[in-house]
Design goal:
The chain is 55% helix and 11% strand. The strands form four sheets. It has a five-stranded parallel β-sheet, sandwiched between helices. Strand 11, helix 14 and strand 12 form a beta-alpha-beta unit.
Length: 595
């Protein structure tokens, strides 16, 4: 049992005995004591003041006296207004450490068949271009959130919806037909997703040239874009695709497979995956069917031009188009179809969509429509809305080919990690295979940590150089501390440092601070799950290694002559390494055993 639970139960008993108030331990408000006051944990006494008919200070003093007399974990206390600051008996921290060290699932809640089923959708790429930096933030947030929710005791299904149809896909297909000359990824020596992305950029280049030519002949920009022969050909290809034209469908299948093969390589290097992948080409017709079903029930309405709409004005929104006048679907319709298939496949309790904040309105509408159409989780769906990621140079544009490809960025990060590590002498003496492995772990860790440490709701600028720094709030700093602890533990084993009972040792302030930080891990995981924020885990890991480094600086470990003290400090080191590894795994980040 954690120290927080022990104190919460003690306070609940005190309140019951002192004031005859039934108090649920879960309602006791506990937090770390502010640095300017003596204490380890602080209890807020205001909830019981009215029933006790006493001042906050008097209530705090009476509860404090009761705890000192009845709870062995409490050494002393002080009261500041309505805040009861509790000092834990120093040797009690040893039992807390022992518990943490021996609990191989510390901070992780076991999942059972009865656990809530949460589905998390992330990635959602288009098959007309490779994954880029923006996708990286989405994918890493989605994967980490899935890990965190599972650590909070949920069954989690990780899903991906691939946008494999639509006008943007036809643009790449048409460009390949016109200017590809039969090129394949093998002939080009390129990943398939990169090759298709080149043709998407090429289409835009020719389209812009056509528009410029038509504007020069007297058209407005809007007229020129509508009259562009190239765009008309792309629209015709989309109509043929929807009509299941064999030639178009064959080309579509071949080019999409090139992209899927490329995506799989990228996902593998990122260390992420999915339990189920859905495709818009399968879901858009399901969505049309569900919308027409809603139309029959009077939940939607049809305009004179044949288009189908939903009236959401009663909910403070507007009218939403669901089917165009020609019967083709929009993104909203496809999302409804995807929801239908998912609900058939899994008895979902909660659905979480990891999608950028530019789609906030879309998910407000989707939530209302799904609820209206009878999906029990519709109204409570979660749009995990995250901010955009940019480079120091500014925004990226796919059509202009100015995006940073995920593959290129990952390769650059690993190369930079190797270069920096070699300059600092951290790879000295390592065989080539191990150098490559450590560089991969550090480079990918730097990338992931930098993208995840920021509050996901905020826009951010990704700076590759800053992310590889071995000092400060970075992945490599945490990884290096972890590797240093592992090295210390290996030396202890080599020296035959035996485990000795340390329960009677009075830990120093640095040791107590570190134990308390380790004890905070379960509540940190819970908070990250509640707030849907991997940044909570990332910044906890950074604070933990900072706390360990302060402890290591002030406290001798292997050189400590007292066997009991040495055993306490080695146990602290082992527990810290274990919790760091566990925390980083929730972010999808590996840690090296040596560096």
């Amino acid at each position: 049992m954690s120290i927080e639970n022990i104190l919460a139960q003690g306070v609940a008993r005190a309140v019951n005995q002192l004031y005859s108030i039934e108090c649920d331990p879960a309602s006791v408000q506990l937090s770390a004591t502010k640095k300017e006051f003596e204490g380890n944990l602080t209890v807020v006494t205001f909830p019981w003041v009215k029933a006790a008919r006493k001042s906050p200070e008097a209530v705090g003093k009476e509860i404090g006296d009761w705890l000192v007399d009845n709870e062995p974990a409490v050494a002393r206390y002080n009261v500041i207004k309505g805040f009861l600051n509790i000092v834990i008996e120093p040797t009690f921290w040893n039992s807390v450490l022992n518990h943490i060290a021996h609990d191989k699932m510390w901070g992780i809640t076991a999942v059972t068949d009865q656990s809530p089923l949460v589905m998390v959708e992330y990635s959602s790429p288009n098959t007309n271009k490779p994954l880029h930096l923006g996708h990286l933030r989405n994918i890493l947030l989605g994967y980490s959130l899935s890990q965190i929710l599972e650590a909070c005791g949920n069954r989690v299904v990780k899903t991906n919806i691939v946008n494999d149809r639509g006008i943007h896909i036809c643009k790449s297909m048409l460009a390949w037909q016109k200017w590809g000359d039969g090129i394949t990824p093998e002939k080009a020596g390129k990943k398939g997703d990169h090759l298709i992305g080149d043709f998407y950029v090429l289409f835009d280049k020719h389209f812009k040239a056509e528009v410029a030519d038509l504007i020069e002949k007297g058209m407005t920009k809007e007229e020129a874009e509508a009259a562009s022969p190239l765009m008309q050909e792309a629209r015709d290809m989309l109509r043929r695709w929807e009509a299941k034209d064999p030639e178009v469908r064959s080309l579509w299948g071949m080019m999409n497979q090139w992209v899927y093969d490329g995506f799989d390589q990228t996902y593998h290097r990122m260390g992420v995956g999915f339990d189920k992948i859905y495709y818009e080409s399968d879901t858009y017709l399901e969505g049309k069917e569900k919308v027409l079903e809603g139309l029959d029930k009077g939940l939607m309405y049809r305009k004179e031009d044949g288009s189908v709409w939903a009236d959401l004005t009663a909910d403070g929104l507007d009218h939403k188009l669901l089917l165009r006048s020609d019967g083709t679907s929009v993104y909203m319709t496809q999302d409804i179809g995807t929801a239908k298939l998912r609900y058939q496949d899994y008895p979902i309790d909660k659905m979480i969509y990891v999608v950028g904040n530019e789609q906030n309105y879309h998910f407000q509408v989707l939530s209302l429509l799904l609820d209206r159409l009878g999906f029990k989780w519709g109204k409570d769906l979660v749009h995990f809305s995250y901010g955009m990621v940019e480079l120091p140079e500014g925004k990226m544009k796919s059509r202009e080919g100015t995006v940073v490809d995920a593959d290129d960025l990952m390769a650059e990060m690993v190369t930079t990690a190797r270069s920096v590590s070699e300059e600092m002498g951290k790879l000295d003496g390592c065989p080539e295979e191990e150098k490559a492995e450590i560089s991969e772990i550090v480079g990918m860790g730097a990338l992931k940590y930098f993208l995840l440490k920021v509050d996901p709701r905020k826009n951010m600028t990704f700076n590759p150089k800053e992310s590889i720094d071995f000092n400060g709030n970075t992945g490599p700093f945490i990884q290096y501390t972890y590797a240093r602890i592992r090295s210390l533990l290996r030396k202890a084993d080599e020296q035959g440092a035996a485990h000795t009972d340390f329960t009677a040792v009075v830990p120093c302030d640095r040791e107590i601070t570190l134990i308390q930080k380790l004890a905070d891990f379960p509540s940190t995981v819970s908070e990250a799950g509640r707030s849907y924020s991997p940044a909570v885990i990332a910044n906890y890991a950074y604070d933990l290694v900072k706390t360990y480094n302060q402890f290591y600086h002030d406290c001798t470990v292997l050189g400590e002559a007292d066997p009991a003290k040495r055993s306490l400090r080695l146990t602290l080191s082992q527990a810290t390494a274990d919790v760091v590894e566990r925390a980083m795994s929730l972010l999808g980040i590996r840690v090296p055993q040596r560096m």
